[in-house]
Amino acid sequence: MKKQLVLLVMIALFTMPSIAQEFNLSGELRPRYENRYGFGSLRSEGDEAGNFISQRTRINFDFENTKMIFKVALQNVRVWGDVGTMAEDDKAIAFHEAWGEAIISEKFSMKLGRQEISYDDQRIFGSVGWAQQARSHDAILFKIKPNSDHRVDVGIAYNADMQSNIDHLYSNAAGYKTFQYGWYHGDFNKVGISFLLLNTGIEYLENEGLPNEDTTIDYMQTIGPRATFKSGNISADASFYIQTGKSFDNSVSASYFGGNFGYKITDNFKASIGGEYLSGKDMDDASTDVNSFAPLFGTNHKFNGLMDYFYVGNHANNVGLTDIYLHFGYTMDKWNFKLSPHYFAAAANVLDGNGDKLDNYLGTEIDFTLGYKLTKSINIDAGYSQMLATETMEAIKGGDSGEHNSWAWVMITFKPNLFNHKFKAPEAQ
Predict the structure, then answer these.
(1) What are phi and psi of 313, to 5 degrees?
(2) Which residue of 18, 87, 265, 310 has the smallest Cβ count within 10 Å?
(3) Rounded Cα distance, 111 and 197, in Å
(4) Residue 300 DSSP one-character state
(5) Measured on CA atoms in the order 124, 130, 131, 136, is the torsion positive or negative?
(6) Total structural domains within the chain
(7) 27-72 pLDDT per residue, tens
(8) Is 0.85 surpassed by the pTM of this model?
């Protein structure tokens, strides 16, 4: 019976019209050693450095033809030593990505499943690639491309904790119950223009503990444009977003502005200057209004210093931030180097324990990174960062601003292309 079934399948394959298809199998293995001596927050006197090696392991399956694109990315993230040498590994392998894209026409497609969502400079939507686990969403995405210069994406997500016959309060494990967004990008000669409209819904219990307790969803809107310019050795960009709506029954009114100006001094040496403003709330403001801008699903590690003092699982609903920075980058053969000093200041009033207003200056961070391309598939990267903090930083972060606060790391990335095959296969009917 099995032989007959195989024979029928083979006959069907050879008698159906054929279509060009491609299958690719790739991998990634990325161990990273870190020495955390005041990473993410100021350390206190006597605190010893945290040392560990984390690792991301991925297997990527990609399939594509003229009718569809299909991808599955299996991922395991762990710390070396968290499982004994003879113990069973209970660290589950997760689907970082598992999606299919139906190509309806040259101008329209529909993408469904677990997927990375990333736009522009990744300030609001990003893949968070630095984090070993990275970020992906369960979503439906409609992609419209009327021509090569213009693109519109419309995305929808709706989350639940389980299959159920009745409504349950969602735990907000994804950070939201639902979102809907529209994103446009157009290229106009040397100028690029993007616009984002994002509606994010958080579910919670309204009137919790009272007879009229009920689940409700509050919606917050993030709206704004981004512009880029490039001509010869000069490049520049600017972004502006506002946030409005409600969050946990509190009114939201927050804003963001960011801009950069870059110049290519030589073929190997580039420099840029830039800044960001993320609104915050005064410490002595007793209202329940939300005035602190939230960068939501952005790749926040690439902004505001590599030591992750701001907006990487922290600094939410706080005094905001002003960040002025310089970037110096140099490449030479297989080497690349980057030096980035940051000047940090609070965007709202910071008070000490006595209620007195402190200077807004939070501190200066200096980031240095280097990389070496060992082979086409193997990269070695390393970095060192140091935070020079003030008492104002101490007031909002705790710890001791007088202590040495630094972070050092070394990472090796293996990204082999394991298998690639282009072939003719039966066309779907």
Answers:
(1) 70, 20
(2) 87
(3) 19
(4) G
(5) positive
(6) 1
(7) 999 999 999 999 999 999 999 999 999 999 999 999 999 999 999 9
(8) yes
Q: What pLDDT score does 18 carry?
A: 59
Q: What string of DSSP letters covers 105-158?
A: ETTEEEEEEEE----TTSSSB---TTSSS---EEEEEEEEEEETTEEEEEEEEE
pLDDT tens-digit readout, 353-368: 899 999 999 999 999 9
The amino acid sitting at 74 is L
Q: Which residues of 163-190 are buried (b: 16+ CB within 10 A; e: fewer)?
A: eeeeeeebeeebebbbbbbebbbeeeee
What DSSP assignment string belongs to 223-275?
A: EEEEEEEEETTEEEEEEEEEEEEEETTEEEEEEEEEEEEEEE-SSSEEEEEEE
- CA distance linking residue 122 with residue 157, whole number of Å: 19
Residues 383, 14 contacting (CB under 8 angstroms): no
**CATH number of the structural domain spanning residue 411:** 2.40.160.100
Residue 267: Cβ within 10 Å count: 8
What does the alpha-carbon distance between residue 215 and residue 170 come to, in Å, rounded to a whole number?
A: 9
For strands 108-115 and 137-147, give the pairing: antiparallel
Q: Tell me the two tokens of residue 266.
A: 């030589």
Query: What one-character DSSP code corresponds to residue 348?
Result: S
Q: Which residues of the chain have pLDDT under 70?
A: 1-18, 90-91, 425-429
